[in-house]
């Protein structure tokens, strides 16, 4: 419902291809009153890498476009069609596309939920030299994410993903924390009070690993929410994470 309201109210470009794959499309929600340049929040959906889509992911747009911030919902090829290496690469390539196609963008802010937080965290470990473009990532909000994939290898989640141990290790942000450089973005790791103990453990340990590597990290424990409404409530102006996001993504 939040995405439908955003599509009805905001200026949008839907299903913008950033590559040739079926899932390689973006939904872009433009600011209501854009300045000459504007920041963009890039939202990466969850769904255990095998369900949901960008078509469900515009619910956070309205509180931000009204403040002069563009919102981009990223699509990627979920399993079983997509595999983990490809999904990580697709999200990285979506940022390259935005930088190259929209020169008015001033600063990228990433937000991912659950599997989307995993993909956003993998962006932080990217060696951009192989892409010959470096996105200006100013901040990252990781909500109830998965940062170590090995524990899910022998669960039902991997029945569709079909990851080997090598693939899981290669794509675990916890194993690829890079030393912070002077231009490193600020990172907010958020976790729900009623998330499972494993989600809470991984959020705490990943934030500690980033901090040990010199990153500027905050850990936000959100009371009274679970794994799902922790992100769905971003459609509400008064929600604490919405307010934090507006402060973290300055219009000017």
UniProtKB/TrEMBL annotation:
The entry's keywords: Cytoplasm, Hydrolase, Nucleus, Tryptophan catabolism
Gene3D superfamilies (UniProt xref): alpha/beta hydrolase
Domain BD-FAE-like: 26-126
GO molecular function: arylformamidase activity
Single biological process term from Gene Ontology: L-tryptophan catabolic process to kynurenine
Positions in coiled-coil regions: none
HAMAP family, A to Z: KFase
Protein name: KFA formamidase
UniProt organism field: Vireo altiloquus (Black-whiskered vireo)
Lineage, opening ranks: Eukaryota, Metazoa, Chordata, Craniata, Vertebrata
